[in-house]
Amino acid sequence: MEESTKKKILIVEDEMSERKALVDKFTREGFRVLKARDGEEGLAVAFKEQPSLILLDIVMPKMDGMTMLKKLRQENAWGKNVPVIILTNLNADNEKINKEITDSEPSYYLVKSNWTISDVVEKVRERLSR
């Protein structure tokens, strides 16, 4: 738990109940949690705060998650290397999504219905321990 107390994560999720559940769980687990409601806000918070990891939804208003990830990866050295876990309702079987995932290199692509919040916390810990 001590490792996570120093770790700052950004949760970019438009659905309020989902965002609140993630924020609450990660806060209880000792993380410093930042949040954003859409990709536009998420990108601004990411560049300003430079979190240790970003949890990112795909389908959001203003700017979708894949556009945010692409802009993040193009901006600077920090953005190219920050771990990103995509947490979405979309399966990665869509060819366009598959190509964007490959090009943007997220750490994990997790379909929400296949993972509990505790599983997501474990994936975050696993990625941050590298």
From TrEMBL:
Any single GO BP term: phosphorelay signal transduction system
Record PROSITE patterns: RESPONSE_REGULATORY
Superkingdom: Bacteria
Pfam family, one: Response_reg
Domain Response regulatory, first and last residues per copy: 8-127
Keywords: Phosphoprotein, Two-component regulatory system
Modification sites for 4-aspartylphosphate: D57
The keyword Phosphoprotein is assigned to this record: yes
PANTHER family with a match to the protein in the record: PROTEIN PILG, STRESS RESPONSE REGULATOR PROTEIN 1
Protein's UniProt name: Response regulatory domain-containing protein
Organism: Candidatus Jorgensenbacteria bacterium RIFCSPLOWO2_12_FULL_42_11
